[in-house]
Design goal:
This protein is mainly beta. The protein has one helix and 16 strands.
Length: about 230
């Protein structure tokens, strides 16, 4: 700029004062300002989520009247007269009850904060089933009524999903397919095939399922836990 003097130093000149070695030449000085790490001041608050009834789909989790529900079926209806609405069939996570409920199109609904944690079923202690977190080794105990019919397929060492809502266990999900050993069954006959009929077999959990005639004691089979039926030989 005009009126300002500019001074230029050439460090390569032998007559320059800056050519002399400095006792501080080994130090590395940064021109960037130092920034101290700030503590995380954010506090955790319960998530309160809301969605529009127009966003409802199968599997959506809703909180209605202080209880968590899952959408099983839905239908968006636009009548010739009157306001549009969404007809749903929902199931209560805690009680298992299923009801039909209608929502006005565009209305706001609170979403249930239901999440899953993988735990391993370790052992049965009297009437309680003990599940362990393999990272923290924390144990969670469920009563027989909480596990329900799923006891038919539970095997020690099996990884399951616990459903939690507001720090409470409200459900248990088993793997879709489980491997179980046959401990009692009528012996198979020579020439039996998968198309040759079926017979009852007792599994290691004590559950009885129908299996093909060629299955024998000691065989491991795969059972679909959704239907409770034989799927294949493992």
């Amino acid at each position: 700029m005009a009126g300002m003097a500019t001074t230029t130093f050439h460090s390569s000149s032998s007559s320059s004062l800056f050519a002399r070695p400095s006792p501080f030449s080994s130090l590395s000085l940064s021109t960037k300002p130092s920034v101290l790490p700030m503590p995380n001041l954010r506090r955790r608050f319960p998530r309160i989520m809301a969605l529009s009834s127009n966003d409802i789909k199968v599997g959506t989790e809703l909180e209605i009247d202080g209880a968590p529900w899952r959408v099983l079926e839905f239908l968006h209806v636009k009548p010739g007269k009157g306001a549009a609405f969404v007809r749903t069939k929902i199931r209560n996570f805690i009680t298992g009850n299923t009801i039909e409920k209608t929502f006005r199109a565009g209305s706001t609904i609170e979403e249930a904060n239901v999440f899953k944690e993988t735990k391993q079923f370790t052992y049965k202690d009297g009437p309680q089933f003990v599940f362990m977190d393999l990272i923290t080794y924390e144990e969670i105990r469920l009563n027989e009524k909480d596990v329900g019919e799923k006891t038919k397929w539970l095997k020690e060492g099996m990884d399951c999903n616990l459903l939690l809502w507001k720090d409470k266990v409200i459900g248990l999900e088993l793997p879709v397919n489980v491997k179980l050993q046959v401990v009692d069954v009528d012996p198979g006959l020579k020439g039996d095939t998968a198309q040759g009929g079926s017979k009852p077999a007792t599994l290691e959990t004590g559950t009885i399922v129908n299996v093909p005639l060629f299955i024998n004691v000691g065989d491991t089979i795969i059972v679909d836990t959704r239907t409770g039926q034989y799927a294949s030989r493992a």
